[in-house]
Fold this protein.
Amino acid sequence: MVYENRDENDTSEIESESVEEQEETSSEALNEVAKKGIKKVARKGAAKKEAKKTSKTTSGTISISGLPVEGIRKFYDIYAILEAPQEIYFGEETQVNVSIIESIKIPTGGTNFIEKNYISPTKRRGIERRMLIWAPILNGQLYGDVKQCGIPQMCLDFTNCYICRIFGGLDPKGQKSIIGRLVHGGGVAIQALAPELKQRVAIPSIINKTTITQNPIPFKRLYAEGGTLYSIANHCFAMTEKEFQGVAYAFINSLKQLGAGNPKGVKIFEDLWDSNATETEPFLIVDEYSVPKGKNPMPSPFEVDIQKALTFFVSNAKNYPQGDKNFERFIGFKALERLINFATSFVSEILGTS
Ligand SMILES: [Zn+2]
């Protein structure tokens, strides 16, 4: 029996939560591993044997961090203003057949606050990881199937699996773990728009009339309005270019999948950047650096005026040192082109050879 897919929201929530839980416990597990490591150092002979066993892999030498040594590592940031082209729903909870949307309260002094819609960074993270797990490779299989890697059972092959290399992972027995080096931020809407409560119905769509039929099930759901803008950021540290290719692939493929149930999907907001501009450009920035020298373009959560928020984004986007060997910034279409080129390289160099 097929209904309108109401459970999809629940699935993404479970995934996001389990991912978060892993992230929180991984630091404890790392401490445990570190303690065990100190004891091992005391037993020098045993430690040397252990190092010999793990020092060589198929793609190079492994360092004490567990990551392969294979090229320059840098910081990478993605900043964007996202636009919901239609109403959008990210679930928080269900109350007697009413699905409540996730929102955030912004204090404005005293006991006053404004309420804004929110695309939780943990939900974006879950969806981006899913893009890698479900990434089609050339022979028709999925990347997660080939690597035997998914949620909650991660493969923990930090040399050959880009899901684990980018998002990190924890062995349930605490024997092996590594932190993710991609973190997600932002997600607060710019406009302070109250969500709309709408009536929906889940209609059975079975074809075989001989099976037992069920009546349509009505339910209510709160939606963020179409046209809501959200400022978001993805930050990466100590990443190789190949790892960032996977981040770019996951980021741009996840945009159309953001949301729970139907409808879903956001796009990078596009408009004239200022009064001198003759062409619209996506509100997107990609930074690659060893020292963070550019201005952070994310508007404050307190800002509710669209024009002021966009002006802030544009003026800060253009505020960075030119020709600096420690900091490179791509803005607008150049940033989009940069991400698409990285994603294309990920398809040909990683997915194409898996
Ligand atoms: Zn893996």
User: Anything to note?
Assistant: Helices lie at 7-42, 44-54, 121-133, 143-147, 162-167, 241-254, 306-317, 333-350.
